Amino acid sequence: MNKGNLKARAANAILKEARTIYVSALEVKQVQIENHNQKIKELKSEIRELEEQKNELHLSVYNWSRPPKNAVKKLHKIKSML
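Now predict its structure.
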C-alpha cells in the first residue's frame, strides 16, 4: 500500500483517527438527542400545567363580565407563555 508516498503505517493511523472522530461525533449527537428529548418532556409538562391554570381561571367563580384585573393579567400571561 504505497500509493502517493503514503506508508501503510501512516494510512492506518489516519484511518484510526478518522474512525475515532466519527465514533466521538456519534456519541455527542446521541447525548444531544437525549438532552433535547428531556427538554421536550419538560416543556410538555409545563404546557400541561399552564393549560390547567388557564382552564381553572376560565372555570373559576369570577363574574367574567367584570373580572378582577389580576385574573385578566394572569390569563393573558398564561396565554402568552403558551
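The chain has two helices and no strands.
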